[in-house]
Amino acid sequence: MSPDRSLSETIEWMNEGTVWFQGHVQQLSDLDLAKESRLPGWTRAHLVAHVAQNADALGRLLSWASSGIETPMYATSEQRSQEIEVGALAPPADLRKDLGESAQRLARAVIGLPQIAWSSEVRSALGRIIPASEVPWLRTREVWLHTVDLDSGARLAEIPEAVVLALIEDITHTFSNREGIPPMQLRVWRLPGGSVIDPRYSIGESGPEISGVGPDLLGWLSGRSSGETLHSSGGVPTLPPWL
User: Fold this and answer.
1) Helix (H, G, I), strand (E, B), or coil: what is residue 225?
2) Fewest beta carbons within 10 Å, which of 26, 92, 115, 168?
3) Half-sphere exposure of 168 toward its Cβ, with a 13 Å CA cutoff?
4) Is 204's pLDDT higher than 90?
5) What is the pLDDT confidence band of residue 3, given thresholds at 50, 70 and 90?
């Protein structure tokens, strides 16, 4: 876990993001759910099904941490994809119900996990070995960014400042450990709430400086914008998918 975010803080972000996502889903009509989301090839129903199933998948990791019995998030990537497709075809009322109930199950698992189990190692869907204390952060990423992906009016600029910075830090760390990413220096000018700050992040040891307001940098790094609003003397490269 990043030294800049505690477990209790991350759980709070997770809960707030869950409320934000569910609120936007509730504002959508049944016909709206069938319309395209911002994610290529997925309707909003696909996205809701994914977020619901992600809650149960992360709950399996907490069960693993508590019991010591390996229970991966998904048996296979194919199973995950098939379950999303099936879930997206469910009646809207059932889809909404599953979203709420799965979030409640995960919340109960978080509250009920023994303190000692948070340091137990589990494996993410990407195969990374992580402590169970990273599970609330994995959920935090999902609910905040996917609320924007619903294309229902939510904006990256509405994400709390601390979450924006934590996401930028997470993405730059991931890219720093991946081959083929051009070196660059990132500078955040300002955050969603208007705070004037100057945090900097590095991918590699050198490279041009790319700067902008926090949500704009986050949008580009996470693949949700082309970076047209950012500033760089050397141009803004096209990045591969973060996850």
Assistant:
1) coil
2) 115
3) 29
4) no
5) very low
Distance CA 241, CA 72 (A): 23
Rounded CA-CA distance 33/92 in Å is 8
Instruction: Specify the DSSP class assigned to residue 234.
Output: T
Residue 87, CB half-sphere, CA atoms under 13 Å: how many?
25
Distinct helix (H) and strand (E) counts, the chain: 8, 6
Hey, what domains does the chain have and what are their CATH numbers?
Answer: 7-154 (1.20.120.450), 161-232 (3.30.1050.20)
Question: Which H, E and C letters describe 21-84, residue by residue?
Answer: HHHHHHHCCHHHHCCECCCCCCEHHHHHHHHHHHHHHHHHHHHHHHHCCCCCCCCCHHHHHHHH
pLDDT for 196: 60
Q: In one letter, which amino acid is 105?
A: R
CB 239 within 8 A of CB 181: yes
